[in-house]
Fold each of these.
Amino acid sequence: MDCIFCKIANGEIPSKKAYEDDQILAFYDLDPQAPVHVLLIPKMHISSANELTEENSQVVSHIFLVAAKLAKELGLENGYRIVNNCGEDGGQTVQHLHFHLLGGRSMKWPPG
Ligand code: AMP
Ligand code: ZN
């Protein structure tokens, strides 16, 4: 399958890793939108939040637990934001489920 994040997950495309285990990978975004901008992905291909099911969604809670630990390690004691863009209107450009972990600056609300 021609999926850039599957290729990052299997090492075909290099990335700057922040965390890895058997289920998930966290790596630095190439185009950071904040001083800390890490992407957390399941290694298994799930194309978006719309493709989550009772069977495959445990990985999402795992991602959130790891994101909180990473945030602490990366110095985001003052807070952070986790974003999932889903579908065209959500601004999803890579069709492999991912969560943005953003921090190191004050975030605006509502987002643009
Ligand atoms: P989204 O717009 O939510 O689909 O986010 C996709 C994100 O992936 C964007 O923030 C891109 O900068 C990032 N991205 C795309 N290709 C790579 C790559 N090879 N390595 C790291 N980040 C990437
Ligand atoms: Zn994929």
Amino acid sequence: MDMEQIKQVGIAAALNGGKVLQEHFGNLRSVRKKGAIDLVTEADIRSETAIIATIAKAFPDHAILAEESGSHAGNGGRWIIDPLDGTTNFAHNLPLFCVSIAFAVGDDILAGFVLAPLLNELFVGVKGKGAQLNASPISVSPIRTLSDSLLVTGFPYDHPTIFDQLMERFGRCLTATQGVRRLGSAALDLCYVASGRFDGFWEQHLKPWDTAAGFLVATEAGARTTVFSGAPYSIDSDEIVSTNGAIHDELLSILER
Ligand code: IPD
Ligand code: CA
Ligand code: CA
């Protein structure tokens, strides 16, 4: 596997998706609902088309798993794509959103690309090669205790199904830390753990395209990432806890109490 080529294509795909998002930002014609509060816009669809076209041109045989168009069979590698992570922010003209693209072979995530086009921030992680923000190395925060930490979380669209548990966990974390934020993009949440802006992130009911790229960026920046039980995160885990490592056990014990 030529990881340098994977990296170049992943970055090009993210930039092409980001360009579409930038063109549509503040200027949407249609916003559809996939569920009661789960939105999809023409920007999601057009960004995904641009990303897939870029990848397919370089790697016509590779498989793709993309949020809006689903699974495309293939072999040799698999690209996991969220063409717009943070659609609700986007639809409300809040510039906190990104394109998220991971590359995996089997279940092994080998690269992650997360681009926030309006913030001009590109996060890249390649397995064994570290993580970068706009080509400069990044690493997780040096915070040692939960009481000194700033956390971030998210609420899934089906939050009514787990509402009490969600609020209990949120409340316990709020009282144990310096604060808890809710940005609205799981991929950026993970990249912000990677760059030390947050000390930890947790969320339930996520999909592979929300987490795969950010997981690799965070891991390469020194993060520890598991599910709530402490077992390792994998592409198909629908929940995630990612921290700077130092506060991980403390956070797990508060989440599971
Ligand atoms: C959502 C965002 C949000 C998270 C939701 C996700 P979308 O993805 O990552 O932060 O809380 O659970 O579904 O729908 O904007 O791609
Ligand atoms: Ca998403
Ligand atoms: Ca999305």
